[in-house]
């Protein structure tokens, strides 16, 4: 009644068939940033390779009475040549960072003003998000409201606090009339923007998308007390808010050693800021104009933990399923991945949840190296995924991985090479950049060197 079934050999694991349609292949042709190390890409990455910490005491407001008095704060920022004087005075710092990073990315892609005059701007779009929006504008408005009443509010108050304004001002400046909006998923924002931008290109909605994230949450400087309140009691509410939810490191005596992902003695993340923007383009369009292709965006994924507003699932289920979806969408097998730029914020729960998820997806991690950009620049919130994508692409192009600094006593569960304290040479095959945000928002981006 029963037939004998001959035992079958285990199938050989082979890489999924890659996308070949040049209209659906998405390549990176430009990068731009504003960072604690300045706005030059090579300077930024060289500082990372050297293991330099950009974390220092806050000097934008009087933080003397705060329990946390340091951050990855932008200093000596210049918008000269990118924003006219009037707008430079009016714009929130988040949107100033966005404009400078976006226009520098376009210049890097050889899409300057002269070239753009002869291009179809109906097929060019902008998708730059922010987790918090115009925090500086909001802070100044609250000061005006309390001290002088609503009639003293700026007419730019509402436009400059809403999170879509980065994409709006960049689209207005460049004349791009394609898809232009923003996504706000806290610290997962930039990777969400890359994912949506790539889908617009693959669906044929656009040929070029400028995408990424921007944030300025440490910028406000109070000028006077508010009706009997001491200046330190005013805002910035953002720093105070993160202190209130016990998310920040309190190593005030050694700020450069405060961000220490995966170290047993980590005690929270360090706030950062800036902007990271990529020019994403269909291979067909890039090839026709003879663009220099920096890397390829193979794909990504987004999903939700559906667990808690701030804490990740300890088993990493949401993150692991996001990684699996990202690999499937990118047509990449786990065996092809050998570098991960981790989200790794330096929080007790988050760091291990991410590692647990990675170990679920990648059964053999012996060839994988994993590092944490936030150990040097802090957590740029909505900008973090953009800044880390640029670090990931530079690793692909240079063959050098920056270290994870402040690795003194590694958690025993972390069995993956975290590139501790000193840079390492490593030929990257396929790289993943992770970003996860408050609310349980998960996003991954998959990059590789461009192969025709």
UniProtKB/TrEMBL annotation:
The compartments listed are: Plastid, Chloroplast
Q: Which residues form the Ketosynthase family 3 (KS3) domain?
A: 23-449
**Can you name a GO cellular component term?**
chloroplast
- Annotated active site: 187 (for beta-ketoacyl synthase activity)
Do you know which PROSITE patterns this protein is assigned to? KS3_1 (PS00606), KS3_2 (PS52004)
Q: Taxonomically, which superkingdom? A: Eukaryota
EC numbers? 2.3.1.41
Q: Which GO terms describe its biological process?
A: fatty acid biosynthetic process
Q: Its Gene Ontology molecular function terms?
A: 3-oxoacyl-[acyl-carrier-protein] synthase activity
The protein's name in its UniProt record: 3-oxoacyl-[acyl-carrier-protein] synthase I, chloroplastic
